[in-house]
Amino acid sequence: MRFFRRPWDEDRGDEYASWGWSTYYLAIDDTGTAHEQVMVYANGVVLAYDDEHDEDRYGGLTCAGLDLEEFSSFEIARQEFYDALARLRPINRHGGA
């Protein structure tokens, strides 16, 4: 598994567009499949998806194959990934805001 933190400077383009831009945290396997995905929005909203919670009213885990070469400059260490996630409280998961 490889881990990434990637900023996204566009809004969602949907009813939640007011949340603003986001930073994506992704755990991606060698085939480009995402197994964990956390989005932290500019307004503080956090959403989290994984293989067990892959979809809800806000969105879902990306099902598109991701290009690992395109993501390579956003790669972070496993520990950095999980340290960041430990501080976040997704609104779409138990114990969230």
Which helices and strands occur, and which strands form pairs?
Blueprint (H helix, E strand, L loop, with lengths): L1 E7 L13 E7 L5 E8 L4 E5 L4 E2 L2 E2 L7 H4 L3 E2 L1 H9 L11
Antiparallel strand pairs: 1-2, 1-7, 2-3, 3-4, 5-6
Structure characterization notes:
With 97 residues, the chain is mainly β. It has one domain. Helix content is 13%, strand content 34%. The chain has a 5-stranded antiparallel β-sheet with strand order 4-3-2-1-7. A two-stranded antiparallel ribbon has the order 5-6. A hairpin with a 4-residue loop joins strand 3 and strand 4. It is globular, with a radius of gyration of 13 Å. The mean pLDDT is 93.
Average pLDDT score: 93
Instruction: Tell me the total number of β-strands.
Output: 7
Order of helices and strands: EEEEEEHEH
Strand percentage lies at 25-35%
Secondary-structure-derived class: mainly beta
- Side by side, the strands of the main sheet go 4-3-2-1-7
The main β sheet shows up as: 5 strands, antiparallel
Shape: globular
N-to-C terminal Cα separation, in Å?
Answer: 28 Å
Features:
97 residues, mainly beta, two-stranded antiparallel sheet, 13% helix, globular
Write a compact overview of the structure shown.
This protein has two helices and seven strands; from the N terminus they run E-E-E-E-E-E-H-E-H. The chain is mainly beta and 97 residues long.
